[in-house]
Amino acid sequence: MKKKILTVVSTLALCTSLAMPTYAAGNHPGTPEQQTYNSSGFTDYGQLVKKLEKIERSSQGRVDVEVVGQSNQGRDIYQARVGTGDRVILIESEIHGNEKTGTEAILNLLQHLGSSNSPDVKAMLEEVTLVTLPKMNPDASELDRRGNVMSWEEVLQDFPQLQGADGPTWNHYYSENRATIQGDDYASQPGFDVNRDFNPNLDYTPEPEDVPGSSSEPGWYITPEAQTVRDVYKDLEDEFGKVDVFVDLHHQGLYYVDGTSEPVTLSLSGQFVPDPSSEAGSKYAEYEDTYDYDFSRQLNLAAYDALQSMGNSPFDNITLYSQGLDLPGTALGSFALNGSGTVLFEVTGQTQSMGQKKKGMLVKAVETGLQGIIEGVADGSVDELDPERYEDIPETSYQPGI
């Protein structure tokens, strides 16, 4: 590794997905008999460090691991990279620390791609460069909660120009604003929803007139976690010219395939801001030449088709996440405007309501969808998909159908 992992282990003592209620429905994650109310079955921060070290070592240099930033509490944020191709795929997980299946799927993929001698894998890695940010909000992950750990006072220390602003920002959780979320206490340990801290202007610096903002306005890059992702993105742009694909791995509540009583396994989406060429998206007109909604839809179809190929199983219960969104403060919204094809994965359940019995299935669902995207980008088949087929993916319902 470019930075010694052992220096991090000694420090260990130190989601957008929308939070929705979880409803019981059949033999599915979230039902009472499968609830454990802990994340002991998932990879914690110390284990992540060791697993990445092992993957890098066993890959004999194929997988490169480095530290690319630090969380607000000083934990290192890791990047793992594999492949030498010109098309760049950037994947992040655990921007919300209680949404953990994505990290497991990334580790499985890195292990496979780093050690496989398959000619198909080798050919694929000659076409794409896969860059992953597993567990990119490690402070939240260690607390098994949505938000990071950061006070508004710390923000003012870092950005004194905000002293006179009408703060805190709207996405700050503290004693006077959503002090308890998903059962977690933010009154004693305030923090931010990091996935609302992005801005399409990758060089933006916080301005007091932009605070407190709202969900339909850009964010500020005030959290070190969002700054790290932005810096990785910009570095890849400098190296390759653009980041072709950005995938964000999240969780959601327990929903249903529209018109049925079938619980959703995973939702996908490629729409996070209105098209800059439309009337609704005219405020983003400066990004009209870079925004590529059709490519985002093709990437989502690559994931959907891969999951459908698993046969008659819970992998069939794949839906479209809510459409018609305007969320420029999310990583997906900001990077879509900057020209990346974007894919949102929303797995059912947070760790507060998801037991371990179905963990393997949900991780496999994420892994399968990611493989579909990577393979489709590598062999060019994603470019042949009809983007209009995206509209045929079943919609999500908040209540079971009749």
Descriptive overview:
The protein is an alpha/beta fold and 402 residues long. It has a domain at 68-146 and 196-397: Aminopeptidase (3-Layer(aba) Sandwich). Helix content is 28%, strand content 16%. The chain contains ten helices and 14 strands. The chain has helices at residues 6-9, 45-58, 101-115, 119-125, 138-143, 152-158, 224-240, 293-308, 331-337, 359-379; strands at residues 63-70, 76-82, 87-93, 128-133, 172-173, 180-181, 184-185, 191-192, 245-252, 256-257, 266-269, 318-320, 341-348, 396-397. The strands form four sheets. The protein has an eight-stranded mixed β-sheet with strand order 1-2-4-3-9-13-11-12, sandwiched between helices. A two-stranded antiparallel sheet has the order 5-8. Helix 2 runs parallel beside helix 3 (101-115), helix 3 (101-115) packs across helix 10 and helix 8 (293-308) packs across helix 10. The protein is globular and about 60 Å long. Mean pLDDT is 89; it is low at 2-37.
Please describe the structure with a list of short key phrases separated by commas or semicolons:
about 15% strand, 10 helices, about 400 residues, 14 strands, two-stranded antiparallel sheet, alpha/beta, single chain, disordered N terminus, Aminopeptidase
Biggest β-sheet strands, sense, barrel: 8 strands, mixed
CATH class of the domain at 68-146 and 196-397: Alpha Beta
Query: Which structural class do you get from the secondary structure elements?
Result: alpha/beta
Count of DSSP-assigned helices: 10
Q: How many strand segments? A: 14
C-alpha end-to-end distance:
54 Å
Strand content: 15-25%
Name the CATH superfamily assignment of the domain at 68-146 and 196-397.
Answer: Zn peptidases
Per the CATH scheme, the topology name of the domain at 68-146 and 196-397 is: Aminopeptidase
Helix content: 25-40%
Q: Order of helices and strands, N to C?
A: HHEEEHHEHHEEEEHEEEHEHEHE
How is the largest sheet built, in terms of strand order? 1-2-4-3-9-13-11-12
The average pLDDT value, as a whole number, equals 89
GO molecular function, one term: zinc ion binding
Keywords: Hydrolase, Metalloprotease, Protease, Signal, Zinc
Family: Belongs to the peptidase M14 family.
Signal peptide: 1-24
